[in-house]
Amino acid sequence: MLEGLRIVEVSSYVAAPLGGMTLAQLGADVVRVDPLGGAADTARWPLAPSGTSLLWTGMNKGKRSVTVDLRSGDGRDVVTRLAAEAGIVLTNAVGRGWLSYEVLREARPDLILLQVEGKADGAPAVDYTVNAEIGFPLVTGPSDHAAPVSHVLPAWDVACGLYAAVGLLAAERRRSRTGEGAHIRLPLYDVALATAGNLGLLAEAQLGVERERIGNHLYGGFGRDFALAGGDRVMVVALTRRHFADLCEATGMAGTVGELARLLHADFSVDGDRYRHREALAALFAPWFAARTLPEVEEALKRGSVLWAPYRRFSDLDLAASALMDEVDQPGVGRIRAPASPLNTGAGRRAAVPAPELGEHTDEILSGLGLSPADLRAKGVVA
To answer: What per-residue confidence (pLDDT) applies to 348?
Structure first.
């Protein structure tokens, strides 16, 4: 889909590398530039037994890799030439004058530069600090838990990376029509703030409502986790009126729930009443789940529309059963299953491509720029 599009990525960690990988998985030629020895994320956990970073290999699938001495003038000149040839640069490097839009556009006037930042005022920030500031850890966790709960998923990095991919494609489309380049700034904090606003959380706060902690309950409807016989747990969600009716039918609780509605003067066909009386409803359903094993619950619920799933560990997943997961031979790791792009264009998904070895394509790419890798290596500019 994106064949012929080249992007130079000077980045590390999650947000910017994810943006580049998203485009690489759609066919773009993404060239990741690292300093000699690798950037800070080269050894980021989790690690393979060999010491290879599984985060680095996960975030750089399908890219080409160049390593350059970014502290030297010659090394920076190499990156400038590469940026001018590609015309699109993605980075999360902040405060490097030689990598600024003003400097790079001198080499190519229609350059597109997207810069992932911490905050719009230039202050540094990462996913975990942004998450704390926006408010999510104080509405996450059990209702009787006083301390903040920071979730494991770096949600803002993920959202930011996808915004970056969309932003670059939008800028490239505009350039194809007008011939104009673009300097796009994408603050991580703003991504989180916008998402909280889009979900209604900020409007709710402005209207004087303090969001409560509700554990694993579904806010504004009926859904929660239930313990099963044998120690398994499932998450059950009755998102609509039909879902809830089917849950009552499958568990044999339709009559009891109807009587509860009469006693409480509630209408359980309405989201709000299901949410307001969630504890009472959960208390009615809990014994049914507790008396059954996972196969028995599956058999009972599969005939209706109820949304549900068992809680699993990563190690429980059957990756071989997923069409998304391809087997690749990842340098430094071995044969593993890795995801291709989840975008299915109708012509089938592109197969997953392993991440490169650090600096694997340095000679190939520099030669394509008319440079001599041997001369640059002799000067210590490339590894």
So the answer is: 74
